[in-house]
Automatic annotation (TrEMBL):
Source species of the chain: Aegilops tauschii subsp. strangulata
Record-linked Pfam families: PPR, PPR_2
Domain of life: Eukaryota
NCBIfam families per the UniProt record, alphabetical: PPR (TIGR00756)
Signal sequence range: 1-15
Protein name from the UniProt record: Pentacotripeptide-repeat region of PRORP domain-containing protein
PPR repeats by residue range: 47-81, 82-116, 184-218, 219-253, 254-288, 289-323, 324-358, 359-393
Entry-linked Gene3D superfamilies: Tetratricopeptide repeat domain
Length: 429
């Protein structure tokens, strides 16, 4: 490096900076400091780029006093701080959990007319969340007020929503709502999603209705999001009114909409409404699929309308739809609970013959049916078949096996794979 002195300061600076850059990745931090001091004493004055490298390296190494002193030295020497320099310092402060200093530097960044970018906000959000200080987010937003725009608000809403900070996401969203006459599609969708996921369905419906006033067009996917949340909470009265409102607004329901609504009606036993929507689908260009049939078959079966459920199953096959493992499992369970064991076993045999492979849930349903009707030998046989297929019994399977045990005189052993120290007496081996 000493031989470089005669070739000009700029060339020397380039060589020394190139020496500094790989050092942080190799964790040769002390050697980097020595190179830096040698650079200042014998070659050339460092600039903002050099200091930025040192601040980043010191921050990652956890040398708090060092990166702060480099920053102070950088400022005292009159180096112009750009976005990269500020972000580097903010990142170092974040990694070292120095919230107060981070907010102070952010304020100085704004005072120097340096506009934060998404990376700046990302670091700030992370440290506030990690340190349990998200209540200071309003302080950050006030500091950055003149540079706030819909894009930044949208980013903050999405980030807070994804990390599960519902209240903070809603607070930022409300600030955006009050600040602009028009809304941002991404922010609205993120807020709608977080409201649905947190069970705030009434707020989600209100937001859906208010979107057009902010210039954001609603679509079927937004309605589907709300329908799904309402269905999980069995709030079918809201589903009905929202479904009618959606159609009145000129938004046509799609296959996903019908499947959600039919399934939701089925959960609360509204067979007539579910069947009515199914007929509406058949009369429209949006035809039912396997999921639709499964939902209605389940609805009919759970309401003891087994003949209709079985007829729908046959119709499904006649129209070229292949019943899946869920279709068969639903019907086997419904017939089994209605004491029609032979029909349940016949459906299971048909399932195998059609090449539809049963899963653990299907076997559990069948074993439960057989156990409740005293068909122990058949249960033994199907359990053996289940094991031969490589399926692992779950807690429900073992519960059924324990009940079967009381019906058999044979006592043999079966190991529970989840508990290496425990054996369960079973007649099944």
């Amino acid at each position: 490096m000493r031989k470089c002195a005669e070739r000009g300061t700029g060339w020397i600076y380039l060589r020394i900076t190139c020496c500094l850059m790989p050092l942080p990745s190799l964790e040769w931090v002390d050697q980097a400091y020595q190179v830096f001091e040698d650079m200042k004493q014998k070659y050339c004055e460092p600039d903002a780029y050099t200091y930025t490298i040192l601040i980043r390296m010191s921050g990652r190494a956890g040398k708090t006093s060092k990166f702060l002193s480099f920053f102070d030295e950088m400022v005292s020497k009159g180096c112009a701080l750009n976005l990269i320099a500020y972000n580097t310092l903010i990142e170092a402060l974040g990694k070292n959990k120095m919230v107060d200093k981070l907010i102070f530097v952010l304020s100085k960044m704004i005072e120097s007319d340096c506009q934060p970018n998404q990376f700046t906000y990302s670091i700030t959000l992370d440290i506030l969340a990690t340190e349990g200080q998200l209540h200071r987010l309003n302080e950050v937003l006030d500091i950055c007020d003149r540079y706030m725009n819909k894009s930044i608000y949208s980013y903050l809403v999405k980030s807070l929503s994804k990390s599960g900070h519902v209240s903070e996401a809603h607070n930022v969203f409300c600030q955006m709502w009050n600040s602009y006459e028009t809304g941002d599609m991404d922010a609205f969708v993120s807020m709608l999603e977080v409201l649905c996921n947190s069970g705030k369905t009434l707020e989600a419906i209100d937001l859906l209705h208010m979107m057009p006033a902010k210039g954001v067009a609603t679509d079927v996917s937004m309605y589907n999001m709300v329908f799904s949340a309402l269905g999980k909470l069995k709030q079918v009265s809201f589903i009905t009114s929202l479904f009618d409102k959606m159609k009145a607004n000129g938004i046509a329901p799609d296959l996903f909409t019908y499947n959600i609504v039919i399934s939701s009606y089925g959960r609360v036993g509204l067979v007539g409404k579910a069947s009515g929507l199914f007929e509406e689908m058949n009369a429209s260009s949006c035809k039912p699929d396997v999921i639709t049939y499964n939902s209605l078959i389940n609805c009919l079966g759970k309401n003891r309308d087994l003949d209709e459920a079985h007829m729908l199953f046959k119709e499904m096959q006649e129209k070229g739809y292949d019943p899946d493992v869920f279709t068969y499992s639903i019907l086997i369970e419904c017939f089994g609970k209605s004491n029609k064991v032979d029909m349940a076993c016949s459906l299971f045999a048909d399932m195998i013959a059609e090449g539809c492979i049963p899963n653990v849930v299907t076997y559990n349903i069948l074993l439960d049916c057989l156990e409740r009707h005293g068909k122990t030998a058949e249960a033994h046989k199907h359990y053996e078949t289940m094991k031969q297929q490589g399926l692992t019994p779950d807690s429900i399977t073992y519960s059924i096996l324990e009940r079967l045990e009381t019906r058999s005189q044979r006592t043999v052993r079966i190991r529970k794979p989840a508990r290496a120290t425990s054996w369960v007496v079973s007649p099944l081996r």
